[in-house]
Amino acid sequence: MIKRFRSFVKHIFELRDSPHSIALGIAIGIFVGLTPTVGMQMVISTIVATFCNANRVAAISMVYITNPFTIIPVYSFIYYFGCFITSTTPKGIMSVLHQINAQESLIGKFSIVVSQGWSIQGPLWIGSVLIGILCAFPAYILVKRMVVRYREHAHRVAEVRIHGTSGL
Prior knowledge:
By secondary structure, the chain is mainly alpha-helical. It is about 75% helix and about 0% strand. The protein is built from eight helices and no strands.
């Protein structure tokens, strides 16, 4: 599991793009991945990344922060956070999330979300936008710094390999 994560991070850091573009793609993917747009997140993140001149691969890869294993805890937290912010009494979000997760078709998922109206969608959207912003901004800063440092380190290692230790 850790090897896969390291491989994923290395792949992202080695994308042929600027640190800014990669970090912006990550931030866009995180933001979109936290919105209740299940089934459309890849398309939305690709479109937004294209218009923002961000790395599309980085953006698409991050929408998977909400997947069949994480969707219920992530959206539950976001919903309750949205209820707290809007001073709304929480409804039966858990049963709705289970219904959405069990639904295979995009139209089925969408119809469940639409049928819930403002009582669930309002706090969910407000919570997701706020949590998305709170996660995307620090992710951009952190990833940009990490990509720069990774590339500087890789350059130094390459220099040592080419010139030996006396070249430094």
